[in-house]
Structure formats: structure tokens, C-alpha cells
Amino acid sequence: MKFRKVLSGILAATMVLGMTCMSTSAEEEEKLTVWCWDPAFNMNAMYEAEKVYQQDHPNFKLDVVETPWEDVQTLLTTAASSGDLSTLPDILLMQDNAFQKNVISYPDAFTDLTDSVIDFSQFAEAKTAYSVVDGKNYGVPFDNGTVVGAYRTDVLKQAGLTVDDFTDITWSEYIELGKKVLDATGTPLLSMQAGESDLIMMMLQSAGSSLFDEEGNPAMVGNEVLTSVMGIYQELVTSGVMIEVNNWDEYIQTMNAGTVAGTINGCWIMASIQTAEDQSGNWALTNMPSLDNIDGATNYSNNGGSSWAVTSNCQNVELATDFLGATFGGSVELYENILPSGALATYLPAGESDAYAEPSEFFGGDAVSAKLTEFAGKTPSNNTGVYYYEARDAVATAIANVIAGGDIVSEIQTAEDTVKFAMGM
Amino acid sequence: MSKGKKIAQYVFLTIVSIISVFPLYWMACSATNQSVEVIRGKLVPGTYLIENFKNLIGNQNLGAAMINSFKYSVILTLISLVVCSLAGYGFEIYHDKGKDLVMSIILLAMMVPFAAILIPLFQMFSKAKLLNTTIGFMLPTISTPFLIMMFRQSARSFPHDIIEAARLDGLSEFQIFYRMFFPTMRSTYAAAMTITFMNAWNSYLWPKVIMTNGKSLTMPMLVANLVGGYVTDYGMLMLAVLFCSVPTIVVFFVLQKSFAEGITGAVK
Predict the structure, then answer these.
(1) In Å, what is the CA distance from B31 to each residue of A248, A278, B19, B244, B251?
(2) How many structural domains compose chain A?
(3) 0.90 surpassed by pTM
(4) Fewer CB within 10 Å of terminal CB in chain A, N or C?
């Protein structure tokens, strides 16, 4: 009798232990690790996505590791080059500009998401294009880098202008208006970091142009859009409508301290603008100027933005894709929840939500979120490729030389030669 | 020296001192100001210190980062001093042609940037199952060519007669190192300690690459996290930088006198 009691006790204990182990392993299966870099922005978005997904998957857990973008790139390069991908997380956030480069350079490090549950047709086409390589989708679009023209309405008023005067205009009109503002107030319209090519790239993309052709070869020499863009940049500086500053902090300072009357950049710049709370109500948003006399020129472009990639180290791809599909690729609720942090969707159905129609007090009561989602839908695609950053740097050097008195055509030739050298051509 | 010349000298030194100290002053001031005030160039202390501190500890695991940085830096410094001083002493006292050649090869390693050996090193550590381990964290920087060279140079000025006398008195080779060389070379150890501690405290790339599980946050990683976002809170950032700088400043000031002696190679 005693033996049977002991035996049944052991069996019961084994069952309890077994069930505990089973539930532990079930919980482990529902866990994903994520790398991203901004606690207030993309990390917050992941935590909100976790909450949304937990509604149907109570055992689901995310381990979000704060990893600055430069480190994501270093760690990815190190892991992929050494052939040991075990250090990579299940999901990582990748800058759109670097997406194609990384997928082409390290094809073994990423999971093809084309045939997964994620419906890519629900995103702005220009946005998904960043993470498509050879017709395959490798990324789930996240934040919107749609370009905005942001203006200080109080300064414009002194020159007798409103933000409407800056809507749907061309760059030549922009320069004329800029001169008017400069004469009336002594304030330049725009500031940019010297030695950076952000504005050039935004202008190029606004006309659907790129530094590379479809085959990925450099297409700078004889590129009429690039020549036109360089000329506009030069005129912006020489006319005094735009000032160049030395670094990013100085650039932010020009806006926060009111040294300039506006800026043109990816919509994420709004978060930095809004840190100057005393300027609330004095800013307004509109689209960027378009290139004069260029076929396909638009008032819309993109700068920055990022997408989620599933690495090949992910042990549960089904869970990762289901999670991304149910949240960033399918939940308007999620996009509503993360809207206050400034995370604007490229998931088109989110733009129709009521939350996106809420007016922004800082930007003069405008429904900026809906406006930006609309801009995103009109943005032409960009062709990045493996040597995108090398080309950007070469163009940045070229424009710095042009500002110092160099000739546009020969500087473009030098830039193309530099990129070809980097490509081993 | 004429009075005028002296005044000019003092004026020059004062200006240079202000230029040197100003960034530290600005860092400390900025830690007490709001982000937008920092960006607008406010140069006087403000009232936002507590708020910045609350934001910092709410945003980052400051305590864990401090403890990790201290733990790794102190252990690494101690092991490094033992290993490198033994190596430097050995290369000088027992030198022959073969060891001199090895020393030259070690010095050549100084010219190779760390980024160039990062991937092969990572591969080695990965195969040895040392990823995400304290040993993996410390091993590549325990022995550095610079420290070995520094101890070798110091050992050069160490009187060989003392070693001979000690041998005659019956001391073993290790006892000679421990009881004769070590006390004489205190200033060199102090200088080496300062340099190693600062390097260990500030090391970023290797710890980041090897400790990927996110549980080994150090102070430089914490500071990098604060500038990794789209909007930087400069007040909070400067407070974190202040926290990150204080230990190295303290170590430097405590060992300042010996550091200067050690660097110039003085033997008492």
C-alpha cells in the first residue's frame, strides 16, 4: 500500500513537472528577440505591437534589445562575414537605404517573406520597394520617411506670405519666395548639413530619378536630373536662401533657435521641431518643391524610414511572420496606438483611421498625420542597391566642391569615377 | 624673466586652461538644463538636473551599466597589469635575439587597427563558444603591445645589479620580480593602470560585438543608446556623459602624480 502511494506520488510529481516543462517550452516557442534603436519610437512601437498580438496569443513575449542603427549594421556585418549568424535576433529593424545593400551582400542572413501571410499590397509601393530584391520581399515596412516642407508661419507672415504660397511650387519659385523672406526678415528659409547629400537625394527621388540605372550601374554622368539638382543646390546657397551648417546638432539648432524659417526633410524631423514647445502653433507643413522642366517631377519624396527584417537565425519563422503580419501588416489599432510617438504609417488603411484625422496644435491645427500618409502614397520609388552609400558620399563631395567653386559637370564625372572605383569597374 | 613676459605667459596659460576646461564645464552645465536650452547654447547651470536624472534612469538601466563597467574595467585592469608587466619584464631582463624578434612582431600588431581583426577574432571566439561570456569580453584586451612595451622600457632602466644581488641572496626569479621590480616600478604601474582603466572603461566595439544578448550594458553602450534615437535629449545625454566621465577623471586625479612619473620613465 505504502509502495503504491509513493509510486502514485512520484507519477503525479512527474506529470506536474512534465506539464511545467511543456508550458515552459510552449512559452519559449512564443518568444521573439528584436533589435531596434529608439525607446520613444520604434521600441515603443514594438512594445505596442506585442500588446496587440498578445490579445490573441497570451503566451507571446518579445525581448526588445536596444541597439543603435550603426551597431545593428556592425553586428550584422560581423555575423554574416564570419558565417556565424547565431548572434542575430529573430527580427531586426533596418534603415531603408541600407536594406537592398545588406540583402544583396548577405543573402543568407535574411528570410524571404514574399509567400508569407503578410499582405504587401497594403503598403505604399515606394516604401515596400526599398526592401524588395529580385522581386522578393524581405522587409515589413515600418515608419514613414515622407518628405515635408515645414515652415514658420510667423516668419512667413512678416514677408506677407503663407504656407499655401509654398504648396505645389517648383524650386525656382521656392528660391524667389526665399529671397523675399530673406529681404523682409533677414531669415534664410532652409538649413542643411554641409558635406551631406540628403537634400540632393530627396530632390532626385521626387522626380523618380536615382544615381543608378535599373541594372545597378552608376548613372550620374549625363543624368539631366542630377545636373539640374546640383544647379539648384548651388543657387540655394549662393542666394542665401539656404545656409549650410557643420553638423546635425547645429542643424537642429537652426530650427529650435529660429535661425531659419523652415526645413525640408523626412517627416521624422517633426519630432525635433516639436522640442521647441514655445514655437507651438507657429509651424505648418506642406509638400516639397518640385524640379523645374523635368519629366515625372513631383512634390513628393522620401528620406529615411525603416523596415523590419526577419533574420535566418529566427527559429520560428511562422511565428515571426504571423506576428508582423497581424501587427505592422494588419492592425490599424497598432498604428493608432503608436501615432502619439510620431510613428506614421506606410500601411495605407491606417491613414483612413479617425486618429489620423486629429488636428495637431503644434502645426497650426492641421491634420498632419493623414496628410503625410497621403504624401507617402504619391512618392516615386527609389533605386538604392549595394553601392548606394558610396554614391551618396561621392555626390556629397561633389556638391561641396561645387559650392567651393567647382564645375558641376566635371564634379559629377569625378563622383561617378569614384563610385565605379568602389565597385571595381 | 621680465614682468611683461611673465604676464604674457600667464595670460596665454589662462586662455589655454579655459579652452581645455570649457567642454567639461559645458557638459556639467548642460546636464542641468533642458534639451532645447542646451541646443540653444545656454552656458549657465539650470534647474533641470533632477528631471534629467529621472529621465535617464527611466530610459536606461544606469545602475547595471555602472556596475558592469566597473566590474569589467577593474578585473581587466588588474589582470592586464599582471600579464603585461610580467611580459615586459621578461622581454627585457631575459632578452636574446629570438625574444627581441618576438617583441618586434608584437609591436607590429600595434599598427593593425582593431576593426581589421574584428571578424577573424569574432570567428575564433564563436568557434571557442566564448560569445556572451566575460572571458570572451576581456581576452582580446588583456595583453596589449603598448603596455608590454611600456613595462619593457621601464625594465630597461631597472638596475641589473639589483637582480644579480638578489639572485646571490637566494631569491627566485619570480621573487625578484615581485619583491624587487614591482615596488620600484610603482609609478609605471600607476601610469599603466590609468591607461588600461580608461581604455577598458571606454571600450565599445568589441564588447558590443561579443555581448549580443543585451544583458551586459556598459556605460559607453548606454551613451550610444541615447544618441541612437531620432530625437536626442541633450540634457539627459550630457548627464549620462558626466556619469561616464567621472570614474576615469577620479582614477586620473588619484594617480596623476605617479602617472606623470611613469610616463616619463622615472625610477626612484
Answers:
(1) 20, 21, 19, 12, 22
(2) 2
(3) no
(4) N
Q: Radius of gyration of chain B from Cα atoms?
A: 23
Interior/surface letters A192-202, b for 16+ CB within 10 angstroms, e for the rest:
bbbebbbbbbb
B119 to A257: CB separation less than 8 angstroms, yes or no: no
What type of residue is A406? Answer: G
Give the model confidence (pLDDT) of B194-213 as tens digits. Answer: 999 999 999 999 999 998 87
A68–B227 CB contact, under 8 Å? yes
Question: Is the CB of B40 inside 8 Å of chain A's CB atoms?
Answer: yes
CATH number of B31-264: 1.10.3720.10
Q: Are residues A78 and A99 in the same domain?
A: yes
Range of the domain at A270: 147-301+387-423
A340 and A295 in a common domain: no
- Same domain for A156 and A62? no
Chain A residues whose C-beta sits inside 8 Å of any chain B C-beta:
37-41, 63, 65-71, 74-75, 77-79, 81-84, 86-87, 249, 252-253, 256-257, 268, 271-272, 275-277, 342
- Tell me how far apart the alpha carbons of residues B118 and B195 are, in angstroms, rounded to a whole number: 22
Nearest to B39 among A63, A75, A249 (CB): A249
The cell for A367 is: 491634420
A409 & A271 share domain: yes
**Which residues, other chains included, contact B202 with Cβ-Cβ below 8 Å and sequence gap of 6+?**
B220, B248
Domain boundaries, chain B: 31-264
Report which of B98, B198, B72 is spatially closest to residue B147, judged by C-alpha positions: B198
- Which CATH number do you get for residue A177? 3.40.190.10
What value of ipTM does the predicted structure carry? 0.80
Give the pLDDT confidence of A241-293 residue by residue, as tens digits. Answer: 999 998 888 898 899 999 999 999 998 888 889 888 899 999 999 999 999 98
Nearest residue in chain A measured CA to CA from B234: A249
B23–A contact, CB cutoff 8 A: no
Residues of B in contact with A41 (CB under 8 A): 229-231
